[in-house]
Structures are given as C-alpha cells and as structure tokens.
# Entry
Amino acid sequence: MSNDKHLNTRAIHGGQHHEPITGAVMQPIFQTSTYAQPWPAKHTGYEYSRTQNPTREALERALASLEGGLGAVCFGSGLAATATVMQMMPAGAKIVVGDDVYGGTYRQFERVFRPHGYGFRYADLSAVDPADVIDAETTLVWLESPTNPLLKVTDIARVAERAKAVGALVVVDNTFATPFFQNPLDLGADIVLHSTTKYLNGHSDVVGGALITRSAALLDQLRFLQNAVGAVPGPWDTWLTLRGLKTLGVRMERHQDNAMKVVEWLSAHPEVGLIRYPMWDQDPGFAVASKQMRGFGGMISFVLNADLARAERFCALTEIFTLAESLGGVESLLELPASMTHASVPAADRRARGIEDGLVRLSVGIEHIDDLIGDLEQAIERSKDPNSIKPPE
Ligand SMILES: *Cc1c(COP(=O)(O)O)cnc(C)c1O
# Structure
C-alpha cells in the first residue's frame, strides 16, 4: 500500500497483504527454523529463519511504512538494535550522545563498546548549540527526543543539519514519541530506533527492537548484520507486535487524552512541584515539540515534594498504577528513577542531572481517567503517614 495513506490506515495495512495460499487476512505465524529447498542451492527465497522469516518481514514492512522508511530491520530487543548500529561503526568511532539517554543504552555504550575503542561524548542536545559538540571528527550522533526520564526535547532537524554538514550519521531513538506523533526521518535522521517493547507493541507482553532507514546502503549493512550477528526476534514475538501495532493510533490518542488530564490535575496539586510533559504549553520543550511532533503519549515526569521515603511509599500505595519499569502498555505504570532505573547513578550526579528524589515517572495507560486520577490522589494522601505502608522484609 502506498505511503500517502494516513497513519491509522498504515498501522493496519502498511506493507501487509493477504497470505497467498489460503487468503488468510492476518499474517500467519511462520514458526519454522528452516524451509524445504527444491534443489541444492535453489530455494524459494526462504532458507533459514535467522536470514528470512515471513512473519518478521511483515512487521518490518509495517514499521517501515509507519516511519516513512525504505525498510526496517527487527531485533530481539531494543538494545540488540542499538548494538547492531554500534557494530556498523568503524574502529575508533567518535559518537556524540544526548546526555539523558535510556540507562541500558548508556550501560551498553560505556561497558560494552567503550572498551572496544569507541569514543562517547555526552551533551545536553536539547540545550547546547549542536555546532559546539558535533565536529568534523564525529562519526555518529545518538539522541532520544523526548528523553527518559526528564522528557527533554531536542530540535532534531537542527542537530541533523549540523551532523550532515560534517558527514556524521544521526540515530534517533523514537521509542517515547512513536511514529504516530513524530517521524525523525522526515526531520533529517538517518536511522530511527524503536524499542518495540513499549508503545508499538503496547501490551507489555513482548520485548523487541527495530531500526528503520531511508538509505539503501544503510539498510543493506543493517540487514547483513541482522543475519551475521543474529540478534533476531522469533516469529511469535513479531506476530504479537504486528497485532499490537494495529491499534497504535487509538491507543496513542487515549494515552495522550489521559496524560493531558493527569497533567492538569497535577498542576493544581499543592504537593506537586515540577511537571514535564512536552505537549503541555507550560513545558520548556513545548515550542520545539510543537514544531516537530503531532502530539505526545502517556509519559509524564513530576516531582512529588517529598523525601525519598515518602516518594517510595507513594509509589507502593497506588492501586491502578503498577510499580514497574518499562512503559507504553495499555495499563498504567509508575516508577521512581532515584530508587529504580537511575539507582546506579551516584546521588549527587543524579540530582545534578535533575533527577530529584521525589521525581516520579508515569506511563499513563488507557484506563478510565477518573480512576487514574483517583488513584494518584489517594496514594499522595496516604503516603503522608510514615506508617501507611512498610517495605517488604
Ligand atoms: C526500553 C528502551 C530501550 C531498550 O529497549 P529494550 O527493548 O528494553 O531492549 C531503548 N530506548 C528507550 C527509550 C527505551 O525506553
């Protein structure tokens, strides 16, 4: 199907066709490792499932359609996709990285690839002049926008323009925004990365990743590495993700509606300090977000004016918001970066980076808004009492 159709249509039909033998409307799960060959070295186009699998390819076509790419390459996790980009880099690559990237990305860069001689330099790409950090030595620029957990917004077109001028590639991790709200390839990025674990699958039941590009040369290299390194997803997981993807549009609209109402409610709450939600008109990222995004989903970060002990009680006292890492599913989740995802960052560094003890990250789901707000309200109230709940032994 051509790419001039709307996103809600492409989420369902993009790159899809009925199965030719039976006419099955939905893509079957080709749960096979290998394919019969009619003659030695003559095959049907399918030899071995690390190399080709029709279910995986259906997901890859759907993702390429949604991001406006030439093709997509799927992996067993978002971090496997990240590693594959790194494996494409030349020895001694110089990589400029947004300073508020996903913790697992940071760990992979520092502990897996730095020892191999890659140079990583971190900068707040949402604030600095790209020309001050991206220079003729730069091989690659890696950024998230909005970031995790502070939801900082980087002007992607501005960074891409500078990168292009010095011959560096740009990778944008579009996991938080999703192609429903933002298309980095249109803004000049060379590769888009997704943890499909999050909004794209949307049901918290699969771990997966993907890379999408418009460049035939990059696509060839990425496909080569997908097969040569082998971090591929299984057919069942790609099928579940394809199934989840079909409702991306309706889910994202509801995530956004609910999140806006939660933001309004939080902003009137006397015990809430800073609130970050890029599409809220009082957010510092609002102007850039409005320029490059069509909306935003269910991610909100806010500061509960409380010490760490009370913030922990609050997180344990919610009844609908489940205390868990990850995000982007239909169910609401919350987490406390200071105690959970960012606990390994020393407290002083953490605070310097804006991750206060009371900073709570919400992934607002698609439940009824009154129940969600009611849940936050009761948990804030009850958390005042130090005896309201005790940590497990
Ligand atoms: C979860 C996440 C990743 C890593 O993806 P996995 O599927 O967990 O390997 C990368 N980037 C962002 C922004 C994420 O939220």
The pocket of pyridoxal-5'-phosphate is lined by residues 77-79, 102, 104-105, 144, 148, 173, 175-176, 195, 197-198, 207, 209 (CB under 6 Å). The chain has a mean pLDDT of 96. Residues 248-267 form the longest helix (20 residues). The two ends are 56 Å apart (CA to CA).
